[in-house]
Specification:
Layout (H helix, E strand, L loop, with lengths): L1 H10 L9 H27 L3 E3 L4 H27 L3 H25 L3 E3 L4 H22 L6
Antiparallel strand pairs: 1-2
Helix pairs in contact: 1-3, 2-3, 2-5, 3-4, 4-5
Keywords: Membrane, Transmembrane, Transmembrane helix
Length: about 150
């Protein structure tokens, strides 16, 4: 099952062809920052046992984490910024519901599949941390350009 999650993570990047090149170029800095922060937080959280990746040895656990961190998360960031940047209330709404869905919908499924288990980190922690993280990313993107009305 872990291979299906990894393959799905890679295949999700095929949707990038649906985003205009101008938007990709515009939002690639915030997407890269998102990936860097997420990788850092993931490895810090793993080191301090905030969560546990269940399947296999150290190498397999690393690949499982990286498949999520470098697959769905930066791509989701790119899509959210493409669709909502410049419309801050919409951005907040989308980010809030995305994080609720991930924290209370996706994580329980991943736990049942023995892919990941939250240990010292709760679903509420997940939602709060990712919303703060999203606000930092939005502010970062504001440094690169001013929001445009669509």
């Amino acid at each position: 099952m872990t291979y299906l999650i990894r393959i799905g993570s890679l295949l999700s990047w095929l949707t990038v062809f649906l985003i205009p090149k101008k938007s990709i170029k515009r939002f690639i800095p915030v997407t890269i920052l998102s990936a860097l922060i997420t990788v850092t937080v993931t490895f810090i959280g793993s080191n301090y046992a905030f969560w546990d990746v269940k399947s296999g040895g150290t190498k397999r656990k690393m690949w499982n984490l990286l498949s999520l961190v470098l697959g769905y998360f930066p791509l989701g960031c790119l899509w959210i910024f493409h669709l909502t940047f410049g419309k801050f209330p919409l951005f907040l709404l989308v980010v809030f519901f995305k994080n609720l869905f991930f924290g209370f919908g996706v994580i329980p499924v991943l736990e049942k599949l023995n892919f990941i288990q939250y240990v010292k980190f709760t679903r509420i922690h997940h939602v709060v941390v990712t919303i703060i993280y999203s606000l930092i990313l939005y502010k970062y993107q504001l440094f690169f350009d001013k929001p445009t009305k669509r």
